[in-house]
Each structure stands twice: as C-alpha cells, then as structure tokens.
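pasting for ref
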Amino acid sequence: MFATRWNPFVQPWWQQFNQLQNEVSRLFDVRGEGMKNGVERGMFPPINLWEEGDCVKFEAELPGFRLEDLEIFVTGQNELSIKGERKFQAPEKSVQHRQERFFGGFTRVLTLPMAIDVNQVDAHLENGVLRIRLGKQEQAKPRKISVKG
C-alpha cells in the first residue's frame, strides 16, 4: 500500500477556483488575446490621444465608415463621445464562409485630461482615420509665471 501526502491544491474546489481566476484574468486582459476581441470589450475603435501645445489631438481607426455613419459629441467640459454604425453589405446570392470584420454599432466615451473649448473642435475623416483637434479652455492652457527676485 502506498501512502500519499494530502495536497490541497489538487482538490476539486481548488481546480474550480483556478478556473474562475483564469476566466477573470482573461476578462480583464487588455494585452495579447484581449486586443483581438477589442470590439467585445469596448475597445473599438482603437485610438490615440495626445496633447500638443494648446490642443488635444485624437485619432481613431474606422475603416469602412463614412461621415454620415458617425456622431461626435463633446459633453461637459472634458468628455468626448463617438458613436457609429457600419452596415453589413454582402453581395446578393453569396455564401459567406468567414466574417472577422465588425459590423453594427459602437459607442466610445473618453474622459479627456483637461477642459475643452467646444467652439474649437475640428473633425476630419480621411482614409479610414478619424482625426479630431480639441482646443483647450483658457484655464487649462499652461501659463508662464515670471519669477521675481
């Protein structure tokens, strides 16, 4: 007869706990596999946001979208919302074998790092890239302070 040492890590409840932990990790993972399913996780469209001088610049990849498919809002003083919808257009009498492109509606809401002047917002869509220039409010612009000695 063989004696085996009791190991709590091989118990059925521990395996279920590990499985739950893996599922939660997968759900919140934004690297690797997470980026492949960005649409499901609120990460569509992929964006870049940066500050340059007296404005904030925003870029979003929106291939296949038209201007009339998009709605852009600046709400409050620092919230940018983008809504859009891409309709599925399959040729008649076709048989679809694979669909990897996203079709349907999306909403992406961003909190910007500073207050925005809504009268200084420009948006352009060119070659599937949406570019937005958002002017800062006066109080959000940097000011040079002179030092007296």
